[in-house]
Amino acid sequence: MIxxxxxxxxxxxxxxxxxxxxxxxxxxxDQSQTVTAxxxxxxxxxxxxxxxxxxNRSDLREVLxxxxxxxxxxxxxxLGMQWLFDGSEECNELxxxxxFPGKCRxxxxxxxSPHVGxxxxxxxxxxxxxxxxxxxxxxYYTHSFHAPVLGATSAASEYGLRFTASVEQSNIFGVQFHPxxxxxxxxxxxxxxxxx
Length: 196
Description:
The protein is an alpha/beta fold and 196 residues long. It has helices at residues 12-21, 32-37, 53-57, 60-69, 79-83, 183-195, and strands spanning 2-5, 26-29, 40-43, 74-77, 87-88, 103-106, 115-120, 122-123, 138-143, 145-146, 153-158, 162-169, 172-175. Helix content is 25%, strand content 29%. It has an eight-stranded mixed sheet, with helices on both faces. A hairpin with a 3-residue loop joins strand 11 and strand 12. The protein is globular and about 45 Å long.
């Protein structure tokens, strides 16, 4: 079973529909016991980084960190990917998971923010999550803050600067774009997650 974590800030229905379309056994939950029992975890998210405070108000943050360290496949989408980093300048007082180093930062002032729409991926290295995804494939974004490019970056996009589009390390995966809104490319990525 794949658990999609509901902390009040996700586009849960569209993420669930995409997994349903792929025939995955998936449940949307805010219950830590269900998350703990799941074989895989998806942390979606849309909105302000501060909405991730909801994870701290329950035991979900601790449950997610334990699952990640137990090598359970974990996928962060958009805000969920940003949570995997040290934090975000959008809400400096709230710590991220610290699985990847660095803070998410706002786009430079010379580009329109938020970054909304289709943009191409530069696949940087072999990736289980992006297996079979063609170079320069287009995916759908909607975000105002971006994660830095680092050693674990598996794909990047350009919008005023180069930023991390996807990140991957062992059992931990993150995508800044929305695979559930990215057509066949997004479905292929979610299918790859089902198979890791």
